[in-house]
Structure formats: structure tokens, C-alpha cells
Amino acid sequence: MNFLTHPVIILTLLTVSFSTGKSHAQTPERIDLTAFPGEIVKDVVIPIPAEIFAVLDKVGEPDWENAIIHVKTDMGVKDRGFLAMSFGSLVAEGFIAVQAESSDDIQKIGRRSLEFAEALGLENAVKQHSLTVIDSAKDNQWNRVRAELDKTQQTVRNTMDQQRDQEISGLVSLGGWLRGTNVLTGLIADDYTVDKAELLNQPDLVLHFRELIAGITGPIRTTREMVEIETGLGRIDAMMRENERFSVDVVKKLHRITTGMLEQFYFDAGAEKE
Amino acid sequence: MIPLKHMKHWKWSFAPIMAICLFTSVPLLGSLQEGVSLALEAAFPYVKDGFKIREDNWHGETTSNKPLLVKHQLFRGNEYWFWAATSFPDSDVTVSIFDGKGNSVSLESFSKDGKSGVRVLPNKTGTYFIRVIVTSTEHKELDWGLVYGYR
Question: pTM to 2 decimals?
């Protein structure tokens, strides 16, 4: 018998290779989250829409092309906070256009993001990203566009953080999350499954955004639009905590709420495709 | 509503304060960003396997052996790697991941040369907890950086 084919040798080799591999073979560790003996990091990283869209693509064939909405938001005398939210939503629109692999739409969004950046006084920080988005879209380099959109949003947030303007930085994230959730609820409602609806289980993110709005200082906090957005987040929070599984009716309600919130700063009324 | 024409000017009134803050925080920032850069270095080989690395990250300062806990939303259907690092030589980093009940959900991990990584395939969409521990026998104050990727 060949030495290497002997059953005992094979078993020994398998045992050795398993115990020296990277995988954990020990009893799974458990930690007490109610009494963690260390530091809880306060910084929150918001997932980009592309992360969630990637899952949706694995479980179906969403109609991304029809989900893109081109807004004509008037930036004339808008508060800086709403501009930041619109910018975040526009970046989310870019992620939708990437899923649709629509080069024309991405180029339009790239140019539009530059206009928003100028209005925010960030054209220098964003210009190169926008140009790369446009050029990569022309060459159909979708992964490059995705990475550049993430960089665009991050550059704006970093610049705001450096200027000690965490409030604006947070509002960019809120705008992106809101548009991402809006398109997600629309697509899930169109072709509902329990598995897809589970993607909406994000109560801690909603709580984070509610705390962000509660902490806003300045005149934007009491505007009718911001009060609408705050009320909407409260309703979403309640729905996410009340429902362990989201029925198609709950998903449709979430979609209507997010549409109403986006109409406060991003969508023109009736802009959404039926 | 604030007219756009006024927006670019308001920040200059804070310029002296910002300059002082920036000046005093430069050495710290340099060090903090190094932890993130090294974590990204650990992540780089995984890009060819289809992982998309996020730009956003967590970083900061810590003391040796003090566990840090990061809360993060994950989605069932995606696969994730988290990579942590410190810029201090002769230091170790470990990164582990737990579900909302505190159970370890780490599938695979490594820890080498001040860099560490952990892989997870969430079986439920929701909030997860990433624990980072930096240890050193020589340094008490240490930097750390944490990045992640998905596919």
C-alpha cells in the first residue's frame, strides 16, 4: 500500500491540516453585550446603498433602470443642511445608475454632484471624483464608478469633519440612506419575498439618524421640512421595532414614508415613477 | 433659509479656532491614519477575490489590552471581512465579530504583524458587534484602525 494512501495517514494529515488552518475549531466565544468590559466606539459607519443592492441582485432581477429618478431640485436659496442631504441622495442615485449600468445616467449624476459640491463650497474636494465617475462610466467600468462614488461621499464627509461640521457630515449620510431605502422598498414591494424584506431590518441605523436630527442646532431644526423628516424617521423606527418580519404592506408603507421625506428636499413632488 | 452667497463666508469667522485645533491635532491625526492605512494594506489582497473595500472606517487611540466594541449593520446575503491594524511595532491586534446576542460568528480569522482580519457570513440582517483588542508589552497608548469589505 502506498504510504500516502493509508487511511491512518490520511486521517492524521486531515487532522493536522484542520488544526493548523485559519478556521476556529474551538467552542465559539460569547461576550456579554450588557456589561462589555471595555470601550464602546461611538462612531457609526453607514452602509452604502451598493452594499444592500448587491444582495438584492443575488436574489432577483430588480428593475434598476426604472428606479433612477432625475431631480431638478432648485438649489437657489437652500439651507446648507438640505443641500448636504440632497448631495447624499444624489450619490445614492449614482449607485442605482451603476446597478442599471446606465452610462448616460451616471454621467448626468456626476455632473450634477459637482453642482451640489459647488453649492456646498466643496468643488475642489469633489471635482476629481466627479470627473473620474464620468470617465469611468464612459468606459463602463462599474466597479470603478462604485468605488469613486463611495470616495466622493467620504471626501465630503471628511472635509466636513475637518471643518468640525459633523452635523452636515451626518446629513450627507442621512440623504444617502434615505434614497437607498426608498428605492429598496420600492423594488421589494414590486417583487416581494420575506428574504428580501429582511434587508430592511435596520433599527439601529434609524435610531442613529433620529439622534442626529435631535442634536441639530440652528434654524434648520425647526423648519417644516426637517420636522416632516423627523416625524418620518419616528414612524420608520416604530415600524422596524414592531415588526420582526416585514409584510408587503409594511414595505409599501415604508416606501410611502420615505417618498414623503425625500419630497421635503430631493424629489420634486410627483417625480417618482409609478 | 440661509442665502447661498453667505455660506462661503461664515466659516472664516472660525478660522483662527480651526487653525489652532488643526495644529494641535496634526501629530495625532498622522498616527491615527496610519492604523487605517495598515488595515487597508491587510485588505488589499482580498480585492482580487471580489471584495469591495469601504472608504469609511473606524479609528482612534486605545490602551494596551482594552477591548473596543464597534456596532455595525450587516446584511444577510453578503460576505464580509473586517481588517484591523496598529502602527506600533511589536504590538498585536485581534479582531472578532459577534451577533446581537453576543455569540461569536467569526468564520475565519488571522492575526499577524500588527494586523488582523475576520470573516463573517451573516445568517440574519441586523446589528453586529466587532471587537478589536490591541496589545503591547512596550507601549501603553496605541493607535488602531478598522476597515471592512463586502462581496
Answer: 0.84
